[in-house]
Design a protein that fits this description.
Layout lengths: L3 E8 L2 E2 L8 E3 L4 E4 L2 E5 L5 E5 L11 H15 L4 E6 L6 H9 L3 E4 L5 H18 L11
Parallel strand pairs: 1-7, 7-8
Antiparallel strand pairs: 1-5, 2-4, 3-4, 5-6
């Protein structure tokens, strides 16, 4: 039985040439192709699941449907094992947050930094700097 399960969600560009079925232009990658959705077991590096999608599909589209069977399998099989999902900012949706939380799993999803976020975090940032100053070994978590 694993001590922990760490799932990384990602997407990528799969460039195509000619008239491939379902190939479309992706503005983020500035090319025609597919935009597959991927899930990796971060501890082994194995690809757990991959889904080929049209190139013009946004990253987080139907991500809960994609992740659902994976997470439910791990929840049922390893009920008391620490489960964690990681993803980048393109997966930052309330639907995904709620789904992961409903399955008693932890997650880290990167957010794009912008002025409002910095403003809201400034009070906590100041506390963290003050309490961890000159100490590179300890850490502190504020709730």
């Amino acid at each position: 039985m694993p001590e922990q399960i760490l799932i990384d969600l990602n997407s990528t560009n799969c460039k195509t040439y000619g008239n491939q079925y379902a190939s479309n232009y992706n503005y983020h990658y500035s090319s025609n192709g597919y935009h597959p959705l991927l899930a990796f077991d971060r501890l082994t590096g194995n690809c757990i699941k991959a889904e080929l999608r049209s190139g013009n599909v946004y990253t987080s589209r139907q991500v809960t449907r994609f992740l659902g069977p994976i997470l439910k399998k791990y929840v049922n099989k390893y009920k008391f094992v620490f489960r964690f999902v990681r993803a980048d900012s393109s997966f930052a949706t309330l639907e995904l947050y709620n789904f992961i939380e409903d399955n008693n799993t932890f997650y880290t999803i990167r957010l794009k930094a912008y002025k409002t976020l910095y403003t809201k975090a400034s009070e906590i940032t100041d506390i963290m700097i003050r309490e961890c100053k000159d100490n590179i070994y300890d850490y502190k978590v504020l709730y």
